[in-house]
């Protein structure tokens, strides 16, 4: 079995899950910034996405340019089954660990 | 601005990803701009740049790990440099001692250079604090200098009538003003105070381009007509300190020299006149109205602004012509009654008049000296970096094998040295104000600084003293100084990085990876190259130490020079009796009465042994000169002598012995026959081989033109620079010729504070409005008279000591390195039976050779360089053998010590450990 996902890698995969076909660098970053309340740099997002790609968890495709990007193309990312499995494993582990502790976690 | 930040961002992103990364960034930027506005968007963008640079190394690591990715991605320079910086900072954090030593060394070198440059900049280079200073000129009266020879002229100051005629004749200046420094008594407020100021004509501040921050300047009538009301302008510092920045200061009446003056203007902060230390300005007509009609009383300097269309050369030529015309009209009369050769006039730009040659030369010498110091520091730093590079040669080799280019490795060294130099520069800049403050404590107060006489043979540039003071007020960290520091730092970084970078990038990786530690070139040409910097250090140190040694010897010689008085237990106080209360010279009943009363009361104080008064302080640098004529027996000649006013007890109080005849008595008072005393130098010069007692001379000051009898000869006293031999002096009895400004001398063993307080009390009882000034023990003027040499000795000694320290550290480092490389060899030799003594001898022989070469080279350079400081030396030749030998011995001893220690510890090393080393 592959090494477990890092915390940030999990966040990125979850964002991909939520965003679906709309997932590219800017949206992933915005998603994590808003929901997880972190200040990210675009470099950090791409680093993680590329690492996930190397591990075979996501794949990328080049999208269409838009005028508001100065005519630059987008790079879209999509989760692969291997990535989905890794995410599921991580989620299961977390849920099992926190089973029954929801109230106490919220009260922390 | 945003475009530039975007550019930087794109540079910081690997080429392959640039398109989508920048696209995403733009999208985000627009999103924010539409919600929060463009300002917020710009802020976000800048923060984003910072975040990207911070995350850059991790990003590159992600690329390197994946081989396919590596091929696809490119290198981006900004990311690479930020990575280098982080790598260097981590390396420094791992070796804090090395970093601290390096930064401290550079801080001293760069800080000293910055401080010195800020002084040179303020004194010689920076724009003077007047409007368009390039069009300002000093106009001097030229008087024929008969002492120098026919056709020779000396620059002089103006009389008021000559000035008026001159400005009518000239036509190259659009505005002009007279000025002259004076001291004033300010009374009122229950605290009389002595203030430095200037008497001026109208439009003085306007000529200089300065406007009052309150009120106005003097009108033409106020400055030039006798009946005009008495007005004054004050400086900002005086306004805040004495008048608590009173907003109603305009129109307020102040008491200057016991006369009422109305304040009409306040001049801006930082302005202190052409003399650099004035805070009070009064019109000539108000304080010295009699001068308005005295064509032969010369007191005033003239500053003028050229018309824009007139060049400096044209102004000088025109001034000469105008001066000739005025000179022909107002002919001077010589002491022999004959008409003197006519005067003329000339002009000089302010920048040419900025500093006397001795100030200029001293500044440049010190700048050179700090430069040497920095060079020595750089060599040390280079050695440190080279040592580190050698330690890390394996790491470098591995990186080379893995594909880092030579440029890459060199760049790493360069980044390291720039960081060190930058940190050193910042620390040095922080150090500079401290250095300047320390230097300020060494120097005497501003007045004495510029009043002490010049060394013999030096010629004073007219106006230089005032302008040097103006410059001295501008000393500080300004843009030019910071630019200089930046340049020095960059040069230092380049110099320091060059050697280790070259060395590291040229080392063949496989050599470095070899097992033996001795492989890194320790013999032959390579090691000679490595010795060259140390030889340079030793030579430079020797030059600095030689300079310091010579200055120390000068200071010692000066100390031993007899001044002519006994300065121990002697207090001196300056008094000036204002004419408004006491009347003016040469007759003043009230003034003479005041003096006699003060002397009596002071003499009666317990603990006071004797009291006397004189017009000038020994080695004070200031004295009047006049000419005398020989009346009985009559003969030709009009020699120049110093003229002094004294009370009878002056000579015993300050310890000047009487050599012939008698001193002044109480009987020598007004109404009695006029008498004078002369000094030994005068007696020898004018009456060689015979006694001057009983002869009569006429003295052209103090009301002694009709002649006075010489009743005694006293020993010589130096009143000018301590380096100048005593000149002929004539002493007039104060009782027969009143003078309003006198020095009181008190001989007493009482502690200074108590004594000064008692004297001040006695003065206050006699006149509560009279301020005392210049209360000092006689040691102070003596010390101040020697300030040039003393400061030079201190500063050069400090440099020499630092140089010695740095060189010792440098030699120690190089030696330790050499020993470390040869540890195996030493171990082998000792295992084969060599004694510690033999090993010491073998290692030290090379060291001795290097040191010897360095010292010889240093001596040769020093012989050339010390000639430049010849003018600063007193009684010591620039090639003084004693100094050179002493310094060479000192340096040899220090070098020997620095070599000996690492070698000795090497011989103690266990043989097996040595052989196992590596």
- Give the CA-based shape of chain A: globular
Element-level helix/strand string of chain A:
HHHEEHH
Alpha plus pi helix count of chain B: 31
- The multimeric state of the shown protein is heterodimer
| Termini Cα gap of chain A | 34 Å
Overall radius of gyration of chain A? 15 Å
Instruction: Give the class of chain A from helix and strand content and strand pairing.
Output: mainly alpha
Q: How much strand of chain B?
A: 15-25%
**Helical amount of chain B:** 40-55%
Distance between the termini of chain B: 55 Å
Mind summarizing the main beta sheet of chain A? 2 strands, antiparallel
Spatial order of the strands in the main sheet of chain A? Answer: 1-2
Low-confidence stretches of chain B: 66-74, 515-525
Biggest interface, residues from each chain = A-B, 26 and 29 residues
Query: What's the alpha carbon Rg of chain B, rounded to whole Å?
Result: 36 Å
Q: Mean pLDDT of chain A, as a whole number?
A: 88
Cα shape of chain B: globular
User: What's the mean pLDDT score of chain B?
Assistant: 83
Strand content of chain A: 5-15%
Low-confidence stretches of chain A: none
Tell me the number of strands of chain B: 22
